[in-house]
Amino acid sequence: MRAPVDWLRDYANPELGTHELADRLAMTGTEVERVERHGVAALERFVVGRVLEAERHPDADRLSVCSVDIGEGEPSQIVCGAPNVAAGQTVAVARPGAVMPDGTTLKVAKLRGQESNGMILAEDELAIGTEHDGIMVLDQDGLEPGTELAQVLPIATDVLVLEITPNRPDCLGIYGVAREVHAATGAPLSPPPWAEDPGTGGELSAVRITVEAPELCPRFTARAFADVNIGPSPPWLKARLMAAGQRPISNVVDITNYVMLLTGQPIHAFDLDRVAGAELTVRRAKDGETLQTLDGQTRTLDSEMVLIADADGPTSIAGVMGGARSEVHEGTTRVLIEAANWIGANIHRTSLALGLRSEASTRFEKQLQPEQAMDAQAVTTSLMLELCGARVLPGTIDIGGPGPEPKTIRLREARLTGLLGVELPLERQAEILQALEFKVARAPDGLEVTVPRFRRADVTREADLIEEVARLGALDTLPATLPATQHAVEASLSGAGPGAYGRLTPYQRLRRAASDALTAEGLYEVAGWSFASDEQRRRLRLAEGPAIEIQNPMSAEQSHLRTTLLGSLMDVLQRNRARGADMVKLFEAGAVYLPGAGTMPDEPYRIAAVLSGPVRPAGWREPEPRAADVFAAKGVLAGLLDSLRAPWSVDAATDQEPFLHPGRAAVVAVGGERAGWLGEIHPQVAAAWDQSQAIAAFELDLDLVAKHATPVTSYQDVTSFPAVHEDLAVIVPDGVAAAAVLAVAGNAGAPLLVGVEVFDVYRDEQRIGAGNVSLALRLTFRAADRTLTDEEVAATRRKISAALAEQLAGRVRDS
């Protein structure tokens, strides 16, 4: 929301500069994204002028050479291109040195040989309107040449660009922000602009209103005006709309926008003579019903949307945008002003389904309160009488009435002190709440607080009141403390001292250790979205798998909760490769979301990594390093799990993930339980992300890893007795996994066999037979208390050979 500071100061004017005010608001909960300057600069160079003469330019048909009195004795010559310039006019003049809205500094110029010492201005050249076809002619009453223009017109203002949270729709109006300024700074707050209402109650005979969907329209109000003169708005109104980001159109339309910006309540103006049958009905749309909106687009509606219809059909989409058929135009003389209240969730759904977002829907979807409708009617009525010369017809249609009775909440002094950790005098608590227009009464243990209507949906419990008090009166004094652990609480209760300290749980330490291990291996951590699109799931071949669908996604790219971390890693990999990165090594740790047995999803915490490109940078000894493959990913996985001291193994995948390459995928087990997968991404899946190089990846359930990891490091003495190293070549059927060979050898050779690894693989049909493979094993024997003898090593070796033959049909090669 854009809040012009000059407009804001009409209602609360603290003795603070704009940036100091922005800081104060930001520190009390109203986020200020930035401060902008709207309009012109070097204000002393903008003055009131009077055109003394206006002669045709001797060398240009469309230019006039004007003599203008700007209060400096001698008139200034200014060349003007406006067709409406004439002698005797009082005009706005920019002198040389003036800084225009686009930042250009005006200089003395020559136009077709004639010197021009400044510029006679149109509305858009002051950023207070959009009119450019002619200069702006000022009212002559009391205006003397040379008067600074800033005293006459709002030609410059600072603008606070605010980020209003969804729970604070009351701050989507200038007066609501002024209320926050009053509470945050102590500056007096002017009465609300709707305090006086020139309209009247009772029956309105000019139109008949029927609300057929009261469950979606809690309140509907309307007033009618006759003798309306449609025309341009005064400069002050145009200027405020422009500074707030709205384009001036005509006085009636501008009034509707002005009232919305001031009160936060959108309103809509109908040409009453275009309302067929002088009757409006609020109802649900019919499936397939269409309406041409004010933006010229034809919208197709459904039965979950609410519309306002007359005898000829739909006239506007409730809470979103009006229809073209009943809009106010130059010939309008009778106007119907509608101010209604709608159910926010329904407006949000309608706006999302139609792809149509407006200033009105932005406010309504945050759930405005029914009372705001009549606030807006009061302000609108005053402006219609003042600016349009209109006559308000007797009566007001008001269907639905005000909202529920205000809620009263007990604010206990002890509870506030306990939650904040700091004492705040009861009088100060009451002062803060009263500044926010809460009603306060003393209670035996604190305060009885009545919630104002505009905070009805936001403040519902005692903790909400404590938050209000804290943000405005206690944040600067809150002590810096660490949260008390259960141990600290017990120590405090037992009288052993406060003992408040903070530390990571074992599981939190394991998570950090996992990230540190991958970082140490040269991987970069990324943070992806918790959402996935249908397209991403299709590219991963997961379209048919279980996933949790989001009922109201912010976009099509966020339609599901993710079931794997691989999708976001592939997105980041593609982005990095597209920007010239050759060696990409990434990991991510976070939750995935799987359908659970109840209403809540299962949220296992996982860690995943992807590798693509060279495994190491090129050098003079290795100009073309080996590309990342499944074995490179396994090496990273080994470093991770070994650093966590978790027992693990890798087995061939029988039911591999659909996005993995057949034959280059494996199942990772930790402590004998399946914990994840490892492999190369299927080439067709990689191609869906425009990747042609091999991509290796793995993903682990870190919750399961934590269950089997050894949290405490254990140490062994380094023995002084030497190790014995021997090689053993064993022939096994080709389908036997190397991991199985290592496991059998390790079990059979214990306890003297302390290490076994594969260092060579050999195939030869003539020497070892078809369908066989020879694995060369390096065996390491050692005893902690003695030097091994040849007989002990040979006996252990025979046990290993026998176990391989018995369990894996393996035989030892002689040569």
Separation of the first and last Cα atoms:
82 Å
Radius of gyration: 38 Å
Largest sheet: 7 strands, mixed
The number of helical elements comes to 21
Question: What is the residue-averaged pLDDT?
Answer: 92
- The beta-strand count equals 38
Strand % is: 25-35%
Account of the 3D structure:
This protein is of the alpha+beta class. It has 21 helices and 38 strands. Strands 26-29-30-34-33-32-31 form a seven-stranded mixed sheet, with helices on both faces. Helix 5 runs antiparallel to helix 8, helix 13 packs antiparallel against helix 16 and helix 19 packs across helix 21. It is elongated and about 120 Å long. The termini are far apart. 38% of the residues are buried. The mean pLDDT is 92.
Topology (elements, then pairings):
Elements: E1 2-4, H1 5-9, H2 18-27, E2 31-39, E3 46-56, E4 64-69, E5 76-80, E6 90-94, E7 109-111, E8 114-116, E9 119-120, E10 156-163, H3 174-185, E11 208-211, E12 219-226, H4 235-243, H5 251-263, E13 268-271, E14 279-284, E15 290-292, E16 298-300, E17 306-310, E18 313-317, E19 321-322, E20 335-341, H6 344-354, H7 359-364, H8 372-388, E21 391-392, E22 397-399, E23 408-412, H9 413-420, H10 426-435, E24 439-443, E25 446-450, H11 462-473, H12 486-493, H13 506-520, E26 524-525, E27 531-532, H14 534-539, E28 560-561, H15 566-578, E29 584-591, E30 605-612, H16 630-643, E31 648-652, E32 660-670, E33 673-681, H17 683-688, E34 695-701, H18 702-708, E35 724-733, H19 738-749, E36 753-762, H20 765-768, E37 772-781, H21 790-808, E38 811-812
Parallel strand pairs: 11-14, 26-29
Antiparallel strand pairs: 1-10, 2-10, 3-4, 3-6, 4-5, 6-9, 7-8, 12-20, 12-21, 12-22, 13-20, 14-17, 15-16, 17-18, 18-19, 23-25, 24-25, 27-28, 29-30, 30-34, 31-32, 32-33, 33-34, 35-37, 35-38, 36-37
